[in-house]
Amino acid sequence: MLVVAFALFSCNMQQSASLEDALELDELLLVADRNLNDTVTVIGHVIHTCKHSGQKCFIVGESQKISLRVEAGEEIGGFSADLEGSRLAITGVLKEQMTVSRESIDEKESEVKEMQHQEGMEEVCATQLRNIAEMRAWMEEHNKDYYAVYYMDGLTYEILD
After folding, report:
1. What pLDDT is recorded for position 4?
2. Which of these, 53, 20, 29, 12, lies nearest to 152 by C-alpha position?
3. pLDDT at 2
């Protein structure tokens, strides 16, 4: 009985230790380039799960500005639609999906500015120009000549609330 109690205590200690090292999504994104291909634990709010397969969920941090796609690994199996709105601690391997070059961003901005004066496009263009401005701000903050898009290969998750 003592062995079982010790085993349960040890599991709880490991779980607490991993949550101590967890980063809120907004914090993780600030240091993501230094954590590529590392196993990390991130905390975020689920805003969407893929209804058909459950193989993906999307989380946001407190700022709700940027989302992170999490792919369900073998141990997770899938993300239930019931998780939407929940706060999760997800452990997984952080990956870079793609980078968007400064040149591509410049080209997109030119295209958007050309469409900006077309009837019915004002709101869409304003949103796209805000996104471009946020990409440029991120590039400046991180001293990069590209904008990085990250995702996570999820290994496990825990519901926090």
Report:
1. 33
2. 29
3. 31
